[in-house]
Amino acid sequence: MPITPTEKIWMNGTLVPWDQAQVHVLTHTLHYGTGVFEGIRAYETADGPGIFRLTDHIRRLHESARIVGMPMPYSIEELVAATKATVASTGLASCYIRPIAYFGYGEMGLNTLPCSVDVAIACWPWGAYLGDDALTKGVRMKISSWTRHDHNTMPPAAKTTGNYVNSSLAKVEALNAGYDEAIMLNPQGFVSECTGENIFVARHGRLITPPLSAGALEGITQSTVTAIARDLGFEVEVGNLARSDLYIAEEAFVCGTAAEVSAVASVDDREIPVGPMTRAIGEEYARTVQGRVDRYKDWVEHAE
Hints:
Blueprint: E1 8-11, E2 14-17, H1 28-32, E3 36-37, E4 40-45, E5 48-52, H2 54-67, H3 76-90, E6 95-103, E7 117-124, E8 139-143, H4 164-176, E9 181-185, E10 191-194, E11 198-203, E12 206-209, H5 220-231, E13 236-238, H6 243-247, E14 251-256, E15 260-267, E16 270-271, H7 276-289, E17 300-302
Parallel strand pairs: 8-9, 8-15, 12-13
Antiparallel strand pairs: 1-2, 1-7, 3-6, 4-5, 4-6, 5-17, 6-7, 9-10, 11-12, 11-14, 14-15, 15-16
Helix pairs in contact: 2-3, 5-7
């Protein structure tokens, strides 16, 4: 989806014009994929742009940095404030937000220890990642030929730029084959996650989502959906899923900041109905991110 420029991007403590937010071609992370990032959304609410679970996202950014040994030059509180200021500078009622921390220009080679750490935050308008009708009609999925990272190969718990080469290969493979998205299995053959979303599968009237040990990212939307589902009275458990569990699912959906809640219409051409749990959770999620559900209002932080 094309990026629509906005007025400013926050870089290392300063809001700079969009076209001046540049990095050197020899920036370390460009060569070695050692950056960490987040995807966050701000939604239009009655009280102005509401950034959904902002502090949780920035906390995970810090945790990703710790996993890869990156010293963060800004605190969680400083980056929360910077994100709010960046969103406010755009004048947009809603937007997608991309904070990224990366090893900068000045050192080359695999050793990151001498490298500086730079941080940037950009915002732009971005619609539904898997389509406007993804909740009601669902998306077509395929099992990828690419295996999700093992924990001792690339840490899947860290949201690092390099990890997403794995996801990009799987995504493009799925699109070229005529599908909307890919589902990735771990080296043991269990379902891990999609290229940018966690997955929930309904079996015997309960929802199951893969554990972190299967290689899934600890999704913030995943935890949001789990809370919403349980509050709606649905049973949710964390457990391993085999490929065959997808084929005989009673219903299934994927979730993530970009994709929000999107129903799964089929996996490897095995049709899956868009069921009542998926619809109820997706509708409640939409109300939640817009600040319209009192019990979840603390998840919405407003830009300054």
